[in-house]
Amino acid sequence: MVLVKHSERTVRKPCRSCGRSDLYWAHDTDRIYHKACPRCEVTGSFVLIERDGSRHNCRNTTDGTGDPAPDMELDGPTEDEDREAPSVPAPVSPDVQTALGMLVGALTPQVDRAEIEAMVKEAVANVVFPTRTVVERANGERKEFTGATHHKLGDVIISLMAGEHVLMVGPAGTGKSTIAEQAAEGLGLKSYSISLSPQTPASQLLGYMQATGDYVPSLFREAYEHGGLFHFDEMDNAHPSVLAVMNAALANGHMAFPDQMVKRHPDFRAVASANTYGRGATRSYVGRQAIDAATLDRFSVETIEVDETLENELCHSTGLEIDQVEQVLTFVRGLRANAEAHSMPVVISPRASVGMCRLLAAGRSWESAVQARVRRGMGDTEWNKING
C-alpha cells in the first residue's frame, strides 16, 4: 500500500465516524477510483492518514474492522477545505490538560464579581476626561466648542443666560479671558473687552465729547446700547471712578452717557475677571484694590482654578513628545504644590507648563526652558524652597 499525502493542512471537517480533526488527506494508490488528482497528479482514492503518515484506523467504523468507513474514502476535501483548512496542533493528553489547569489555577488569583466591580469603579473614578461644552440657545440653535474647554465655562454661560453678570476670580493664567470670549461665542453675542488699571479713565467706558461737539463712542457704549458681552479684565486693578461708572451701568436699565441717556439692551451682559475677591491686596497680588460692596453685589462670583485636564491638552497640542510633556507636567505641578504649601507669593500657572513645552519643542534645553518660564529670576533661597 502506497499512501501519498495530499495536503500539508489538517482536515477542516473531522472524521465523520470518530470526530478527530488532526488528520490529513492522502491518496491510496492501490485503490484507483478515478482520474489523477488535479493538484497532486496522483491517481488513487482519498483516505485519511495520521500525523506519522500511517493510515487512519478509525475505531468507530461501521463494520468494526478498524478500517475507515467505506464511504469515507469517496469523500475527498472540498475546494475550500483543500485551500483553507488550518493546521492544528497535536492533541494534548488529558493528563497534560489537567496539569495545565492546576498550574493556571495556582497562578491566577481568585477574584469574585464584587471585587472586579469595585476595581472597575475605582479605575473609572480616577479617570478625568477633558470637558466638552455644548450650548443650546433659547432659539434652539446649538453651539458645540471644538477641543477641550475649562470645566467652569458651562457654569459661566448658564449664569449669563439667566440674566446674571459674572465675576470670575482666580489666579493668573487659569483661562479667565478665554472663558469670557467663549461665553460670548456660546451665547451668539459680540465680544468686547477692556483691561483695567489705575490709569484707566472713565472716558474709556463712557466715551467723550470732542471740542467740535461731536461724541466719540466707546466699545462699552456699543455693547450697552446694541447688545454684546463686555469683559472687564483685571477689575480689582481699576480706579474707583471707573468702578463707579460700572456700578451705575449695571444697577439700572439705563445709563447717562456724555451725549444722551441710553437704554440698556436686553442682550447686554457683563463679565469681569479678577485675581482677588475684591477685599484688597494679597501676598501674591500686592497691587490689587478693594472693590466697593455695592459693585460686587452686581455679580455672581465663579471661582476659576487651574483645570489640569485642560492643561494636559494644551501641553500635548504643542507637538512635544508625550514623555517630555508628562515630565514637564510632573515638574511644574510639583513646583505649584510646593509654592502653595509654603504660601509663597509665586504664581505657577498653566502658562508655565505650556510655555515650557513650546520652548522644548522648539529646541531649547531643559535648563533654559525652566529659567525662562518657571524660575524667571527667582533667588536661590526661594528656588531651593519651591524646588525642594
TrEMBL record:
Q: Which GO terms describe its molecular function?
A: ATP binding; ATP hydrolysis activity
Per the UniProt record, which residue ranges are transmembrane? none
Under the heading InterPro entries, the entry gives:
AAA+_ATPase (IPR003593), ATPase_dyneun-rel_AAA (IPR011704), CbbQ/NirQ/NorQ/GpvN (IPR050764), P-loop_NTPase (IPR027417)
Every copy of the AAA+ ATPase domain together lies at 162-309
User: Bias regions of kind Acidic residues — which residues?
Assistant: 70-83
Against Pfam families, the record matches this protein to: AAA_5
User: Region Disordered: what ranges?
Assistant: 55-92
The record's PANTHER family line, in alphabetical order, gives:
MAGNESIUM-CHELATASE SUBUNIT CHLD, MOXR FAMILY PROTEIN
Q: What is this protein called?
A: Cobaltochelatase CobS
Which species is the source of this protein?
Answer: Actinocrispum wychmicini
